[in-house]
Amino acid sequence: MEESFEKTNNVNKKLPLEELDRDELLKRCKSYLALAQRAKQARDEVQQRETSLLDKISTLESQIIQLGIQEKTCSNNEEEHLESIEDLSLTSNVSDLVLQLKLKDEETNLLLSKSEAMQAQLKTLEENYEQQKDGFVEELNKMNDVLKQRGEAITRLEYKCQTNEKEFKAKTETFLQLVAERERKIEQLESESSRFETQSEVMSTSTVSKVEEIHRMKDVEDSLEDRYNKLKMLAVKMKRKIAEQNTQLQEKDNQLTLLKAEDKKTHIRNNSLNLQMNLDAVQLELDSIQNELQQQRTEIRHVTAKAESKENEVDNLKLQLSTVNAELHKLQTGSSLLIETLRKHVAALEEATAAEKMAKDSLQSELSELRAEYENYKIRATSVLKKQKTEAQPSATSSKEAADDFNTDQVEREMLQRVVEALKGKIAELESQLAHSQSEVSNFRVERERTAATQSSIVEAMQNRLERAESEMEVIKREHQAQISRLQGDNQLLASLHREQIDGIKLRHAQEILELQNNLDEVGLESARLQKIISSYQAQRTVSPLTKAGDLRRDEAFMIERERGEGSEDGSVTRRSTQREDSDNDARKPIPLELLLNSQLASEETVVFQTERPETISFEQYSESLALVEKRCNHLSALLAESEANEARLSQLADALKEEIRRSERSEERQKHIENLEYLKNVVLKFVTLPRGEERSRLVPVLTTLLRLSPVEVQEYQCAMKTELETNHALLSLLSSKMALKADIVHGVSVKLSMCMSKSSAG
Description:
Distance between the termini: 47 Å
Number of strands: 0
Low-confidence stretches: 1-18, 543-617
Largest sheet: none
Radius of gyration: 63 Å
């Protein structure tokens, strides 16, 4: 105790309380509680020693009282004997009585010396007890002082924690206010920036459009004259080119149809390959799930086998307990028979002592009668002597008669003395027999008490062992049932999870099959639509000669010189040329963001127009449309990436703010529960001191409500409990081996007890 206390004091002196963490404080509190428990145990042991010493003192006092009573009885007997000796003038037995007195004095001196030695031992024990008590009191006072200091330090730390929490709350509130103000400022700046951007875009687009219109007008004025001359020359060339382009268009259409057919085939092949891959993956998942189910079934079988083995062990332990109970019953019956026989023997001895007492009483009555006769004889003798003195002249006859009477008196006196000696011898024999019988009775009583004590100790030990074995069996049964329930729950969970996975896989498979069917239907519809387009195109090819004649007439009209007032055709041509140049310039200049986002409808319309008029499509328009689409895609992908990054950053900030708000709410809720510190202390001490199991898991919701634990912390505790349960399952095998060893030990002890009882019965 002192060494452990010094160690704890040295550890406590090394580190101040303010530098310690909460875990170290809890560890120190645990150490102090362990020291307090040790002090309580030491105090209980000292109290037990005190009670045992007090019992010993009481027994010694009772023995001293009994010795005093025996001395008194001996002194009374001695006085009676002395009176009888004085009355009967039996001087021959005085020496024997003196020797007996000396022996009894020696015995009393020995008993007094023993009693003094016992008193000295008692005094030494009392002094040792007082010293130990003083030492324990000092240690307890020190412990109380240390605990008071720790309590004061804990209160200081709690006050500091409260102040820190208040400061943290104030800081969080200020921080939240600053964050709100910053967000407002950011929103205002964003609104202003968007407004400025729109204004700048509008200004830039207006200035650019004006400059471009001026340049376009100049270019148009410069190029009108050149184009009139060039158009006349190009009209003939265009006719030839139209014929060539028609042939090229036909070839390209044929190539497109072939490429579309190949694309459909490749798409169908890829879909079939993807379906096959998905089916293979689903099959592999099903195989893995089936393997896991088989593994779980094997594990369940192993667990059931272990449970059956444990049940067999429990049955064996029950059989051993029944055998131990039978042996205990036999021992109890044997001990009861021994007790009855001893009681009968004691009753017989008591009857013998009563008979001896009756004989002693009769002899004492005879002695009293003899003493009365002796006194009467004395009185007669004195009366006779007085008569002899009064008569001065005795006659011869009277003298002879007196001599005869004196002789008869002497003879009678001798006879009486012999009778008295015989009676004294009988009394001595009876007293010796009484002492022997009393010693035998005391020996029998001691043996009976000793046998009763041994029997009670054996019965208590066996009962304790039985209780321990039953408690261990109950604990094993509970653990076994808990393990079975846990395994059943795990099996059900795994089965439900596997069923859900299989259902999800089936649903995915069905969805994929439906998607593939829809794709096939769409492919069929596209093929039908393409066939219709090809048939319409062929019909247009049949109508194309008529259109060619109309074109030739138009070319001739262009070649004719214009008269005055004929400017409509020129205006239309110029409008078309200007529109083409405007479209070229629009394609070349950068497109703003709003127009890019809103240009989807226009692009779709152009695509529809192109599909409606495949004859007017050219390679440049294809390249320009592709460039526009690529630019728009890049722009949109950049915008999407920026928006996703902003969303991710904002979601992270929102999560962080939510977590801080939750922490602040939990801290506020903790302050409500901090007022009841005594209850919280008791709950924490129970959680720390209780063994790991159901009782400790029941305290988890209480701690979550009091300390407002987060779900992450609760999950961490549950994971730790699961790992501990797994380690406990590993310890079950060790417990079974220990139970077997305990059963062997109990069997050996029962055999030894039966041997001891048989020996005692034979003795």
